[in-house]
Amino acid sequence: MKKRVTLKDVAEAVGVHVSTVSRALDPKTRHLITAEVAEQILKVSTELDYRQNAAAYSLKTNRTRTIGVVVPDITNPVFPPIIRGIEDRLAASGYVAILANTDGNRRREVSITQTFRARGVDGLIMASVERDDEAISRLSQDGLPIVTVNRQVDDPGVSSVVNDEDAGMKLILGHVAGLGHQHVANIAGPQALSTGTARLRAFEHHRDLLGLDDDPQLIAVANAFNDEEGVRCAEELLSRGVAFTAIVCSNDRLAIGATAALRRRGLSCPDDISVTGYNDMPMVDRLFPALTTIRVQQYDAGHEAADILLEMIETPPERRRRRHVVLPVDLMVRESTAAPSKTQGRARRARSAARAAMADPATMPAAE
Amino acid sequence: MKKRVTLKDVAEAVGVHVSTVSRALDPKTRHLITAEVAEQILKVSTELDYRQNAAAYSLKTNRTRTIGVVVPDITNPVFPPIIRGIEDRLAASGYVAILANTDGNRRREVSITQTFRARGVDGLIMASVERDDEAISRLSQDGLPIVTVNRQVDDPGVSSVVNDEDAGMKLILGHVAGLGHQHVANIAGPQALSTGTARLRAFEHHRDLLGLDDDPQLIAVANAFNDEEGVRCAEELLSRGVAFTAIVCSNDRLAIGATAALRRRGLSCPDDISVTGYNDMPMVDRLFPALTTIRVQQYDAGHEAADILLEMIETPPERRRRRHVVLPVDLMVRESTAAPSKTQGRARRARSAARAAMADPATMPAAE
DNA sequence: CTGTTAGCGCATTCAC
DNA sequence: GTGAATGCGCTAACAG
After folding, report:
1. CA–CA separation, B44 vs B328, rounded Å?
2. Do residues A210 and A343 share a domain?
3. For residue A245, is pLDDT > 60?
4. Is the torsion defined by CA of B163, B164, B165, B168 positive or negative?
């Protein structure tokens, strides 16, 4: 491997001192140098293809231009766009991201943040937090810039970028109610996650505003945002014996599970029961039936989170301000919702039973 | 932000010299230290929560325990499992990954590898290479450990981990031929990518071994691994007027596009024409029709690539050996393949025309 | 076995 | 405006 060219090499080539080169290369201190000398230094340094040694820079300045990104699982389709948004924004400012997966495991999260801190990250973007995450609050209070994406912690001191859950539920319920549904069930997400509680709260709120059936038996709470829990909760709802013609799910995976559960029971979606998701994951427009859902702006969320974080990093700790950004969402109406059938007819049910043979949900775990 | 505890702090607390602490903390040099002293140092250092300063370590040793991972686009579902495999392996050895997306742009790839080199990465894992990528060959010859995943460069000097394309095509063609198809079309991938050429070569090879129709008109070459190209190639095949009852596609996205194109023409899959994919992307088991495809071991590929890279890093440059690992693949038979219909009947075509109204392919670009 | 010394490449304070 | 000197925290060669 070729030897790297250092400031010293450039200094010797130009015939000036190292510190002069250092100043000339930094836009902030360039004005201290005679214009011609600076120009010459710049020229030679590009000729020699000089690159600042990141380790030396970090050791000296205590800044790494590296930020840590923590997600539950990069394999969950919700996260790649967020990460992409983060990286695009970071790259524009010469920062890079180091990435880690927690699998929703609290202990791993702690050990990861410690590793990242040892690496001297300038900040953290967390997509994996639970509502009561004290470790994050503490790190944040210690002065480490942190912003959460997609989710947030209850502590309002930690900056966040989230989607407008209230607006999303309003759109979904408005759509479903508009189709004529009066008895709408809800599969809520884990209440340890802000997305879970916010969407449940919004569901209840707009359900009441719209005058829909508010029987608490119409709500089932999932323990995770995955297919299996969608299946379990749908079965639970069906077994309770309360009548409903639509199920609003707190995310797409729950909806996929719920749809599969209906199918197994010989019920058709949307003929017998409408189902909605949340997130608009890739490919849900190609499912059978194509899923009506809420599109959230994952890329923008990541981009914005990185933007806020960089701003925090460049602001002296005492002047830093927490920020909470809420991004707008869109309703995607597809095939999984329809007007409630008056008859709940046999013919329909028979037809849908034929489909019931189709595959069970993949057993991929997921959280968001 | 609390002040970080350094070797010096530990040394003072224990009452020994910094270098003693340094040695005691490194498993490789620990044996040089009296057992009791070492134990005491270990104890104090955990009490104080000492963490090695990564920048100082790097500056001194010229190693960063950081490796660069370059993918075309993390948003393409093929890559997250690979990345996850890489990270899990790296984490086990105390390494971290920094990630960047090229969007298949050669210039970006070069600039990214330069950035990474400036950051002093210990090695590179490239999922984005084209066959004739000279920049990579050069870097590799310069002594920078590099391994490509999923794809490979033509230069055999660069280590790689790929899937068994020949076996995959053999499985697919065996399955299709076994169903009774004699005239099998192929939508091949971009020939600038090793996956594209390898799968095409394998297709031709096994087509001939099986005695299938070898009309060159049955092959269409896509310019990218995405839905639109799948549509375009399927239409091209149909417009050529050659008869076929199955289309073998070089990846899942092409297959999705091809299926959509058939549908628009009022043709049903698999009733009129069978379609196969390649990769077994998430969710393709839930499409309509669920896609018959080849499952490749993305996670394992990433894991193995990281493993090889770490081994290279720990081997002195002159003793390093190139390695080429080929991972086995599996056939996933689902609903998109069936025996060829003798009649190509009107009734069938009418029925499938009803489905033709369904959504067009999403306009997401993709490469693999 | 342990302490001493040097220096990795850089930014920055202090002289001039 | 520029050069000289210092030290960030660590490892490694050398000395004892």
Report:
1. 49
2. yes
3. yes
4. negative
For residue A218, the 8-state DSSP code is G
Q: Which range among A318-327, B295-304, B344-353 shows the weakest confidence by mean pLDDT?
A: B344-353
Please provide residue B53's backbone torsions phi and psi, each rounded to the nearest 5 degrees.
Answer: -75, 115
Domain match, A195 and A140 both: no
Burial class (CB in 10 A: 0-12, 13-18, 19+), B85: buried
A317 to B1: CB separation less than 8 angstroms, yes or no: yes
Could you identify the residue written with the tokens 């790190």?
A139
Prediction pTM value? 0.90
- Chain B nearest CA to A244, separation (Å): 25
Q: How many helices (H) and strands (E) does chain A have?
A: 13, 12
pLDDT at B357: 33
Instruction: Answer yes or no: do A32 and A119 share one domain.
Output: no
Report the side by side order of strands in the sheet with A123-126: A324-327, A159-163, A146-149, A123-126, A66-71, A96-101, B96-101, B66-71, B123-126, B146-149, B159-163, B324-327
Q: Which residues form the domain of B110?
A: 64-162+298-326
User: Within this chain, do residues B13 and B151 fall inside the same structural domain, yes or no?
Assistant: no
Confidence of residue A35 (pLDDT cuts 50, 70, 90): confident
Structurally, how many domains does chain A consist of?
A: 3
Residue at A145 is within a domain: yes
Is residue A361 in some structural domain?
Answer: no
Q: Which residue is nearest to nucleotide C3 (CA to C1')?
A: B17
Chain A residues lying within 8 Å of B334, measured CB to CB: 359
Residue of A nearest to B259 (CA): A286
E strands, B94-197, are 96-101, 123-126, 146-149, 159-163, 184-188
Residues B48, B37 share a domain: yes
Residues B226 and B246 in one domain: yes
Q: Does A6 touch chain B (CB under 8 A)?
A: no
- Asked, for residue B2, whether it belongs to a domain, the answer is no
On whether both B248 and B338 belong to a single domain, the answer is yes
Question: B201 is written with which tokens?
Answer: 């070569």
Nucleotide showing the shortest C1' distance to residue B36 CA: C1
Residue A133: CATH number of its domain: 3.40.50.2300
Instruction: Round and report the angstrom distance from CA (B32) to C1' (D13).
Output: 15
Same-domain status, B169 and B150: no
